[in-house]
Amino acid sequence: MDGKLRFLVIGAGQRGVSYANPVSQMAKAAIYAVAEPVNFRRQHFGKTYIWGQDGKPAAGQEFSDWKQWLAWEIERRELEGAGKTVPPGVDGVFVCTLDAMHVEIMLAIAPLNIHVLCEKPLATSLADCMSILGAFSRNPQEKIFSVGHVLRYSPHNQLLRKLLLTDRVIGDILSVEHTEPVGWWHFAHSYTRGPWRRATDNKDGSLLTKSCHDIDFLLWLLSQAPDGADKEISAHLPKTISSTGALNQFKRSRKPKQASEATNCLACPYERQCQYSAVKIYDDARLAVGHTHWLNHVVHDIEDTLHLSGVDAARRSLYANLEQDYIKGVTPDEEIAKRPWYGRCVYESDNDVCDDQVVTIKWDEDNQSPLYRPGKLATLHMVANTEKECERRGIIYGSHGELSYNGKTIRYFDFVQTQETVIETPDAPEFEQKIKSHGGGDRGLTTL
């Protein structure tokens, strides 16, 4: 560990793992500590990335929540300042908790003057974002403050930006159609049954939690100057931004008549015919075939149960969670809202976020810039019911050509040469594909 930058991960879920995995492979950095309230997740994360399968955590490496770590770190610094011998602290923190928790954590750790990467979105309101920015603006410039807008950092998107802005393979960009296909089962899991199914107090919903980094991706391509351009050249900012969306699929009026009054998949007569069946999604398509990714959202220790006690015990644990339900008008709303309900009928859930939304961004012509930038238009379409899961795709129309992309392949056609060029970009490592690492963007941002 000597000479390496030490990092704490707050939140050992999927996003925490997505950042910890590439850090653990770096020569000059290491995951040193974890703060996570779910015991199984904390232990599994620690054994995988910190103290090893047969080891035990040292002082300052394991915490049940971020506040426990913060109190420990403040005391450690006080003792160190008094000349006492203390365990090492961390040089940086990855904040990978639920969105609504970000602002409290970020404001609390800002005075520590350490490197920070906060998972997107930074916060769930503009006021909270500005508060965080103000708190961190007081820190020295050499400390890194970053937000997990990882789409910028995938090899595919890095090449895409170079082709468009540096090589100008289709000339000036005039129009962009970008689609975020969430995935039919993924939307049901996360945004209908899961923790992001309700809009925030500011009425922000799935667009913020799922696609804010798609907006960042578009601004990165269309507003920022090309790499190597004069740093004095200002960004080409949009003139207008508008959005419209709706909840069209996941609501009671769309419920199949054959499902009758059932509110839970385990008691539904239509379960075998329903594409959103929790039994199909979590057992048939996952547990039954040994695929446990995402199942730990439903049962935190299911992988441990499967390994130690077998598939039947894991299935009993899974179904015990899926059969849990509530009664509208009887169960207090605060009880319903505070947890996911993965066995709940998607047509009977308490979700209210859009499952289909379009954002339109318009730029006016900028003929004062030395780059001369024409007016342009971009649309982002976030849509739930898709075959592909988070495999972004789009078409970009230029003054001299047309380009399409899908996260793996970039194809462009030159109007002048009447010639097509196709480029295949390399796949992310197998583990990163499994955990949906944004085409290597998680690794790209972490190891930058």
UniProtKB/TrEMBL annotation:
Transmembrane segments: none annotated. Pfam families: GFO_IDH_MocA, GFO_IDH_MocA_C. GO terms for molecular function: nucleotide binding. InterPro entries: Gfo/Idh/MocA-like_OxRdtase_C, Gfo/Idh/MocA-like_OxRdtase_N, Gfo/Idh/MocA_Oxidoreductases, NAD(P)-bd_dom_sf. Residues 164-225 form the Gfo/Idh/MocA-like oxidoreductase C-terminal domain. Signal peptide: none annotated. It comes from the Eukaryota. Residues 5-148 form the Gfo/Idh/MocA-like oxidoreductase N-terminal domain. PANTHER family: BILIVERDIN REDUCTASE A (PTHR43377), BINDING ROSSMANN FOLD OXIDOREDUCTASE, PUTATIVE (AFU_ORTHOLOGUE AFUA_3G11840)-RELATED (PTHR43377:SF12). This is Putative NAD binding Rossmann fold oxidoreductase. It comes from Aureobasidium pullulans.
